[in-house]
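Section 5: illustrative case.
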């Protein structure tokens, strides 16, 4: 017995020693994933990425949040941990070496929409997801597409704005007739025009004050973007902003790196476009614990533009700073400033006759000062700034606070020529000021300053996540348009209109994300949206409110309230397959121009436009393929249709069009083919039509007609090759046929001007020096936009009215910009890279 016992002990000891040595040689890693209360998070996902070879290993934690990785090759790893309802946890530069067992602990914070954006592209057990230029989320509760950093940096032009970054996402189209990033572009999707959806930056909604519209050239160039979360739905109760009515385009600032790096870049492209850019990442610095991090970007862009004499200059700088008091207390600040000048005129484009006579790219000229399109008569000066300070803190018992005060301003000083009423030349006879009916130019200002704050309080429990909070914003606005003489730059005594107004916006909300099972989450919430406008409109020359019976101004107020419930569910059929369903509501208030009537008298305020949205979809992430698909039905109530104001060429008239409905199908997929080669595709099919048969008891002339700028189908296709040093991509977007509205004088406004389908193809090539070199992130970049030089009409404002549209030489055209080529070289320096 003693011999048997001795042999058994020796066997056990030998087994333990052998296992220990084997584990040491392989680099054994153990750890745990817990919430802020210290409770283990079951079935968390842990991903290990070798920072040199990019090889990814993915495992799942057990019921108590524990995990073990039995074997990893020696090297430096980035380790990420994630779980439904929690933000991504990341640890970089984790050294794995034989004979050195490692223990890692993760404490995951409560997740928010923007925190979760980067999770799945990196941790899904899917090669196709890791290489997808854009993709959906397994945790999605509505139709969402995530545009990642790699797409922005490698597969878009260095001078692109956010509309061009979004161009290849499902259903979206955006046109800039002056060339990529060289104008004020607008986006359309699902029958939504600009102003019918939110755009946020790091969770802060931004927009104009007279309507919730946006200016792509004024605030957030692609140099400041690290990703985009595109939610094509009103979202949940915690989705804040003036109009998540149609969806939310969540722009994200760049992530801050742990390693110091300096990048100096120069780009030169078609139309004499020059971009110089400098970016400095400090990495973590400051004392032993290195709690500080700073990211600075300064750039200058100048261009002659594709269209003749439509020049642009942008000088911009941004700064992002982060200070970690501890792992549970983080302070973040951001500031961005832009100074923009341009020669873009107020007209929507050239006429057919001008194009036929002067060429496809004609817009302005500089040899005939008697004409409206004389360059010196058309100028923009648009300075903007945007700042916020964010603070996050975790408390005990699962509570967490996130607050973000902010401010931003927009100052659009524009001067543009108008055609004399007698259609004669611009000269001293036709363009006198004072009592003359032909001032021949307009001195325009649209300026505002906003102050706001978004605060949320959350609690994680075994039942789920409770969220509550509020968005508050105060804004002051000054707008005017004054007749002017372009020959002398002398303004008239009375304006076409002049108004000041102050807006207070409140949106308190509460919602609960119930974890019914490990696979099923159900979220229900409620939001109250309240807006109040106090307006002061000044007497004018009769173009808008008139002389007000001798009064200097008239004051009035408008208040709007909407009650917005939402409910959704996500069910995880398998770890890599989920389905979701959603019912949500949204609203958008009428524009301030509802008071632009004689005497500023409005007897009955129009109601906010409301939306009821129904969506269902699925997300699948296989190892070599990802698929996202959804069906949507959206009903809009109290819809307005817009058309040019015949009495004011720079104003817009709004009239009731009844209710409308949008419905359709969207699909998105990425197929990983072989060794970094992937095929990406998306497509949409749908309709957006007016559905009210009567308005106020009168037959609705718009019934069953298409909403403007709503193609019946869109298709996107991309082929990418991504390896350690080389990135190649070619993308094509086809926009199906659609309709534009007619003018105010047309007997038919809606479904009036047919617009044929068109295609846009872009090609990109990049060679980048990656980690492991003194010249880390140095890059050679080649971009082709509109590769095949396609030339087509994308929008049209008719010159004539009538029952049916007839082409006319006076039609104003929106056109695809011609082919552009940009070459960029970036020198990256990382002297302290390890």
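Designed sequence:
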């Amino acid at each position: 017995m003693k011999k048997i016992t001795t042999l058994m002990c020796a066997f056990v000891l030998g087994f333990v020693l052998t296992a220990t040595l084997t584990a040491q040689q392989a680099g054994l890693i153990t750890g745990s994933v817990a919430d802020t209360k210290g409770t283990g998070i079951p079935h968390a996902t842990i991903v290990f990425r070798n920072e040199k070879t990019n090889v990814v290993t993915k495992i799942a934690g057990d019921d108590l949040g524990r995990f073990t990785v039995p074997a990893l090759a020696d090297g430096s790893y980035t380790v990420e941990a994630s779980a439904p309802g929690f933000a991504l946890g990341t640890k970089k530069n984790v050294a794995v070496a034989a004979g050195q067992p490692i223990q890692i602990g993760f404490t995951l914070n409560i997740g928010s929409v923007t925190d979760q954006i980067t999770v799945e592209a990196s941790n899904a057990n899917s090669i196709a997801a890791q290489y997808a230029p854009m993709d959906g989320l397994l945790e999605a509760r509505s139709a969402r597409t995530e545009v990642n950093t790699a797409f922005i940096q490698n597969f878009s032009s260095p001078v692109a704005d956010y509309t061009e970054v979004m161009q290849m996402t499902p259903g979206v189209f955006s046109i800039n007739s002056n060339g990529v990033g060289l104008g004020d572009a607008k986006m359309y999707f699902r029958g939504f025009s600009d102003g019918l959806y939110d755009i946020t930056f790091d969770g802060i909604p931004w927009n104009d004050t007279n309507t919730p519209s946006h200016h792509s050239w004024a605030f957030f160039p692609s140099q400041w973007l690290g990703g985009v979360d595109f939610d094509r739905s009103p979202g949940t109760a915690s989705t804040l902003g003036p109009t998540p009515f149609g969806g939310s385009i969540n722009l994200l600032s760049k992530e801050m790196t742990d390693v110091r790096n300096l990048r100096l870049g120069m780009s030169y492209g078609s139309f004499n476009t020059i971009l110089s850019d400098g970016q400095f990442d400090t990495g973590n610095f400051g004392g032993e614990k290195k709690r500080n991090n700073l990211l600075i970007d300064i750039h200058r862009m100048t261009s002659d533009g594709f269209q003749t004499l439509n020049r642009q200059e942008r000088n911009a700088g941004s700064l992002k700073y982060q200070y970690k008091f501890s792992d549970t207390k983080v302070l973040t600040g951001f500031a961005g400033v832009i100074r923009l000048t341009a020669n873009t005129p107020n007209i929507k484009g050239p006429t057919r006759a001008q194009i036929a006579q002067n060429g496809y790219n004609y817009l302005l000229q500089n040899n005939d000062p008697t004409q409206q399109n004389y360059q010196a008569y058309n100028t923009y000066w648009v300075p903007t700034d945007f700042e916020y300070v964010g603070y996050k803190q975790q408390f005990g018992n699962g509570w967490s606070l996130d607050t973000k005060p902010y401010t931003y301003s927009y100052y659009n000083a524009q001067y543009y020529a108008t055609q004399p009423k007698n259609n004669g030349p611009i000269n001293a006879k036709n363009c006198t000021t004072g009592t003359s009916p032909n001032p021949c130019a307009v001195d325009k200002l649209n300026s505002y300053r906003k102050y706001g704050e978004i605060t949320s309080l959350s609690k994680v429990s075994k039942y789920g996540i409770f969220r509550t909070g509020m968005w508050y914003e105060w804004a002051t606005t000054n707008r005017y348009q004054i007749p002017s003489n372009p020959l002398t730059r002398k303004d008239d005594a009375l304006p076409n209109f002049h108004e000041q107004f102050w807006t207070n916006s409140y949106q308190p909300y509460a919602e609960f994300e119930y974890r019914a099972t490990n696979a099923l989450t159900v979220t229900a919430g409620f939001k109250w949206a309240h807006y109040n406008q106090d307006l002061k409109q000044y007497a004018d020359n009769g173009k808008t409110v008139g002389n007000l019976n001798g009064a200097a101004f008239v004051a009035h107020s408008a208040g709007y309230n909407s009650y917005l419930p939402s409910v959704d569910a996500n069910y995880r059929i398998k770890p890599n397959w989920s389905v979701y369903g959603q019912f949500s509501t949204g609203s958008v208030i009428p524009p301030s121009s509802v008071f632009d009537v004689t005497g500023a008298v409005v007897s009955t305020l129009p109601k906010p436009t409301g939306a009821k949205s129904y969506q269902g979809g699925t997300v699948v992430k296989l190892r070599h393929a990802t698929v996202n698909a959804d069906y949507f039905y959206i009903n809009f109530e109290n819809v307005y249709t817009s058309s040019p104001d015949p009495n004011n060429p720079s104003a817009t008239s709004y009239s009731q069009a009844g209710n409308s409905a949008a419905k359709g199908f969207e699909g998105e997929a990425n197929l990983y083919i072989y060794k970094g080669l992937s095929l990406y595709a998306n497509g949409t099919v749908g309709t957006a039509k007016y559905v009210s048969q009567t308005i106020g008891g009168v037959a609705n002339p718009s019934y069953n007609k298409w909403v403007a700028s709503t193609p019946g189908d869109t298709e996107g296709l991309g082929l990418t090759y991504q390896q350690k040093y080389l990135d190649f991509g070619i993308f094509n977007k086809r926009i199906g046929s659609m309709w534009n509205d007619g003018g105010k004088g047309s007997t038919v406004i809606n479904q009036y001007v047919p617009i044929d389908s068109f295609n846009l193809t872009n090609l990109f090539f990049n060679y980048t020096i990656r980690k492991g070199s003194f010249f880390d992130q140095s890059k050679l970049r080649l971009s082709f936009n509109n590769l095949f030089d396609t030339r087509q009409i994308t929008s049209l404002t008719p010159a004539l009215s009538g029952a049916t549209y007839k082409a006319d030489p006076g039609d104003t055209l929106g056109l695809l910009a011609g082919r552009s080529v940009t070459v960029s070289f970036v020198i990256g320096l990382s002297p302290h890279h390890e």
